Amino acid sequence: MTLRQSSTSDCITFRISVNNLDLLVKESQSKQVSLNTLAKQIVNEHFNWHSRAAQAKLHYWPKSFLIRVINQLTNEQLCELARNTAKNDLVDVSLFLRGEFTIASLSNIAETWLRISQMPYRCEVNADFFKIIIEHDMGYKYSYLIKEISRYLLDVAFGANTSCDITDNSVVIKLHS
User: Fold this and answer.
1) Which of 99, 116, 133, 171 is deepest in the core (most CB within 10 A)?
2) For 128-146, how does the pLDDT look when each residue is reduced to its tens digit (9 = 90+)?
3) What is the pLDDT of residues 45-102, one digit of tens each?
4) Same structural domain, 23 and 69
């Protein structure tokens, strides 16, 4: 292994199997990014999420399983789950993954989670608001749960001025300045 240091990044040479290299090349081509960019993304995702996810008590579940479980809950149960998740779980996750519990750290965690889970989303920022639109395709009750978690975190925990619109398969969270 050779390592050469520059001012903002390091250059490293390492060996991987031909099969894995072929897979990386195909993925970089399908994503229309260079092999170097893809490798940087993989390393960043590892250190920003995957290496700490299990320690932060985050686990992967099939989407269909989550939909079935969430659809069994009443709106009252969803509100209780949202409150407990926001109050007990997401504070610890934010502290563990980002070292702080702030709107910025939660926003970063949400964007990382959306990107890694390949859930379509879009962020809009202007002088008056920050808006995130999430398309999850998991049904109304999932939208309701995300809305309630967001409301509890932003409105209750941080006293922020927010609004949230939901449909069967999307959530729009708007943080007003």
Assistant:
1) 171
2) 999 999 999 999 999 999 9
3) 998 888 888 888 888 899 999 999 999 999 999 999 999 999 989 999 999 899 999 9
4) no
The answer on 89 and 25 residing in a single domain is no
Answer whether residue 58 is part of any domain.
Answer: no
Distance between CA atoms of residues 35 and 68, nearest Å: 39
What sign has the CA pseudo-torsion 49, 54, 56, 58?
A: positive
Among residues 139, 136, 140, 134, the alpha carbon closest in space to that of 174 is found at 134
Containing structural domain, residue 157? 63-176
Name the pTM for this structure.
0.81
Total number of domains constituting the chain: 2
162 close to 173: Cβ distance less than 8 angstroms: yes
